Amino acid sequence: MPKIVDHNHYRQELLSKCLTVFAKQGYGAITMRQLAQELEVSTGTLYHYFPNKEGIFTQLVQELCEQGIANFFAQAPAAETLGERLQLVMAFFLESYQFYQQQILLWVDFHQHSQHRTVGEQQFLRGVWQRTHDQLATYFPELSSSHVDFVLVFMDGLLLQFLYDHGKQEQDWVVQQTEILIDLLACS
Amino acid sequence: MPKIVDHNHYRQELLSKCLTVFAKQGYGAITMRQLAQELEVSTGTLYHYFPNKEGIFTQLVQELCEQGIANFFAQAPAAETLGERLQLVMAFFLESYQFYQQQILLWVDFHQHSQHRTVGEQQFLRGVWQRTHDQLATYFPELSSSHVDFVLVFMDGLLLQFLYDHGKQEQDWVVQQTEILIDLLACS
Amino acid sequence: MPKIVDHNHYRQELLSKCLTVFAKQGYGAITMRQLAQELEVSTGTLYHYFPNKEGIFTQLVQELCEQGIANFFAQAPAAETLGERLQLVMAFFLESYQFYQQQILLWVDFHQHSQHRTVGEQQFLRGVWQRTHDQLATYFPELSSSHVDFVLVFMDGLLLQFLYDHGKQEQDWVVQQTEILIDLLACS
Amino acid sequence: MPKIVDHNHYRQELLSKCLTVFAKQGYGAITMRQLAQELEVSTGTLYHYFPNKEGIFTQLVQELCEQGIANFFAQAPAAETLGERLQLVMAFFLESYQFYQQQILLWVDFHQHSQHRTVGEQQFLRGVWQRTHDQLATYFPELSSSHVDFVLVFMDGLLLQFLYDHGKQEQDWVVQQTEILIDLLACS
DNA sequence: TATGAATGAGTATTCATTCAT
DNA sequence: CATGAATGAATACTCATTCAT
Question: For chain C, which terminus, N or C, has the lower number of CB atoms within 10 Å?
Fold first, then answer.
């Protein structure tokens, strides 16, 4: 069944290109034709691989959720001090900055469209948060659960900054902010 | 004699009700008919007071910008220690929590629609940030500019928590997080 | 009952200003608000004097029909030769050129909207033609009925020329054409 | 493989059906839904082949202009006497009578919408007139330029008769009028 | 009377989705 | 499998008409 493998593989390939488009325009503002053009396929092909627009969105969200930021923490190298590990985590976070920004925009869209969803689907993002929290907590055993949340809140805050045009041209500013976090946490 | 209506006043009244609707559904997802229903007027009336959908959005953004979070800081009472003042600010912030969450959602919408905007309009949000920063800096003379930014980043991060369904039923969690911030800053 | 006289008088006054507006824009393209502005009254006032948009149009058509081009022929001075009388008629016609052009445009609109009309109303313009024919025939006893029609066809043809931008700046051209008509008819 | 359709050819086919509809109702009075129904397609299809309502109108006008009444004159067979050639032209004209009546209605619409047009577009109709004049003049070398215009004025006048309900049931009347023209011109 | 704010049915246009090729 | 032409419901917006003042 090589065909099926190909089919799925191609679907994922298309999906991965969707994040950028959805994040840039927003779910509501993008049309299927536009999306098809960006992916360099026809609308017909899009409907061959996905049930409908909502379906693309949902699959994208799920895909992102499975990859999850947390997985990356798991692969992070060990380090002695809290400060060093915070450095490593933030360094990795900053590297994939854009990806997470786009993800946040997708979460917002998902949240705003959640009125048509079941309760289970609405709590979907809560699960994302929880898993991220857990993996982070494992990596930082010396931090309390609340302090782990604090780090996550800070990261979300940083991601939101691109709205204000920060962080796009000013990598310095972002680095500076993370240093403040590390200082405050490591020295407390 | 025509029906006597304070055109401008009524427009603002309508506008204020729009924030909730825009934040809940998102600019793209709301239809003019829906919006009219929520405001309990006809679509015709909506177009009597606003030029078009985009116009409602723009005026709402401008209105919010003029009110500005910053103004509230300015009215905040004086207090001796940094810790006390942080308490006051955060207390006020938590009171108007929902309002700012809605505002954040509006900023996201504004950002996603900014591709069609002029450069001047695109830097609009940067101005919002700057003004908030300045007023906060005045209120906290002992904090460096970067640390003021850090506080703002944290607040933005907190506001984003509605995505993960935090803070709705869990006021405690939010309070706890602000306490961590105050502890870290005041004791550093 | 002076009020009623005033009412009627004012209605006619408004009506007379309508021809220009309807002819310039066309019935379908003009809005009640625009029409009100051109007449320098409010839309409410318009509805005080007329039942609705269609009513204004209908009354205008009827008004014009009663005035009729024919009436003017009746007042035309007597003259010996056919040539002289043709001269007089055409001279009068050319003087009121614009008025008849606007009237033609109104007839076209009336014709295009006639699908919603009764058969009686549809033949309304036929009556206009007939009456004009009759009066012209009386004024030109030496012309056969067909030749009177020929003159009317020519006049309609002239009125249509403003479409091609003739006759607006080129009075000469129009005069020249009428001279050809007179020559052909008088010398035959 | 997509559905194979000669896009351009099908567009022209649709366009040709539009003339009747536009002429019958007038540009302003026809709705896109109605138009689509008359052409037996969906509104979506209409927008697949034309940019918008105005675009259909413009393309129709241009299409008609290119076909032009003049082309037909060019194909007209030679004949010795002026009278014979007038007979041929008028016979051809009477055959396509309805088509030209519809065209006239379109010109009226075009004229009324010309307020929003550039100067170049406004002189468009003048060009139509000029070309018709030139071809007619070539076919009738013995007629002066003014007399050619006179024939055109007469033809336009005849076309307008649908307003007065002439010519629909009374082909005779139209034929009689053309005979008068021929007589007057040929014998002068 | 006269006004113009309010209404909502109706218009042009878009866009997710289907399906013949 | 892939295409894009066709569909028509849904959207933003307009405008004739009403009515409180």
Answer: N
**Residues A10-32: pLDDT tens digits?**
899 899 999 899 988 889 899 99
- Give the Å distances, CA to CA, from D58 to A26, A163, D17, D38: 36, 44, 14, 19
Which residues from the 40-59 window of protein chain B have CB within 7 angstroms of nucleic acid chain E?
41-45, 47-49
Kindly tell me if the per-residue pLDDT of D64 is higher than 60: yes
CB A17 within 8 A of CB A56: no
Residues spanned by the domain of D139:
53-187
Residue B19 has pLDDT above 70, yes or no: yes
Q: Tell me, yes or no, whether B29 lies in a domain.
A: no
B183: which chain A residues are within 8 Å (Cβ-Cβ)?
188
CATH number at residue A137: 1.10.357
Q: What pLDDT, on the 0 to 100 scale, is given for residue A1? A: 40
Of B33, B7, B131, the C-alpha closest to B15 is: B7
The tally of domains found in chain C comes to 1
Angle at Cα D187 formed by Cα D185 and Cα D188, nearest 5°? 65
| Nearest nucleotide (C1') to alpha carbon of D7 | F5
Q: C4 vs D40, which has greater pLDDT?
A: D40
User: What are the structure tokens assigned to B174, written together?
Assistant: 């939010």
Token readout for C91 is: 């001279």
In this structure, are residues B82 and B142 in contact, taking their beta carbons and an 8 Å threshold? yes
Q: What is the pLDDT of residues A113-136, one digit of tens each?
A: 877 777 777 778 888 888 889 888
Q: Count of CB atoms within 10 A of residue A187's CB?
A: 11
